[in-house]
Amino acid sequence: MAGIRDKRNLRLADVTIERSVWQRNDCHTIRNMILKKAEEKKVAEEVNPYDWPESYYMETDPEKRKALLDTQNNPEEAELNKLRNELWHLRYQTMKNGKIKDCFIGGWMDLMLMRDQASGKFGKRGLKKQALKAFEQMGLSRETYFGRELLLAELKHMALLYCCASLTDRQYGSVLFGFGKMKKEKIDRKVIADLNAVGRTVPENLELSQEAQLLTEAIQLAMVHMGYDA
User: Fold this and answer.
1) Which tens digit of pLDDT belongs to each residue from 83-104?
2) In this structure, are residues 227 and 18 in contact, taking their beta carbons and an 8 Å threshold?
3) How many CA atoms lie within 13 A of 68 on its CB side?
4) Which of 62, 107, 171, 179 is an S-S bond match for 138, by CB 3.0 to 4.6 Å?
């Protein structure tokens, strides 16, 4: 999706929107939206204001996430951070051009692309196979290995990253052929529809609700985080 790679330096906290904030007309309020600890400390945008491990899950840039992870030396969390490191390598792949590919977001977009076809009567066998491949790409089959809570946190991060990219991407909020821009409330509804499509509609239509259970839960947590009705 356009904007995900370009917007990686934005943090999830920057687009954690509350309903009251949506009513503002200031076009750059999204950039200044920092909740909880960020508001209390009034830190600069370029500084990650969160404590570990929250700092890791509020950072969108893969390399910065890896840097945060590599600085952790608490022996009590050594095993957990080892799993986080493996999960990082499962999710991110460095391509030949040096850019980092987010495989979780890749699986997310595959599910998004099949949302309309999944509601039809034909071709569901092939779509089901594609959906299971997307689940595999997101690590859903390795829940036992990584542990439910760790994988759930990473999947929630993926969903929040999608929200972040969507809410800050001009193309996402544009109307037909890019002329004009949707109102914030309409963009809000579009994001919610996308989250529900990946977390509920596609799995239900393909009879894969059980296989997608952890993904569905992660998306619901992300919706609550964003102030949406889950």
Assistant:
1) 999 999 999 999 999 999 999 9
2) yes
3) 21
4) 107
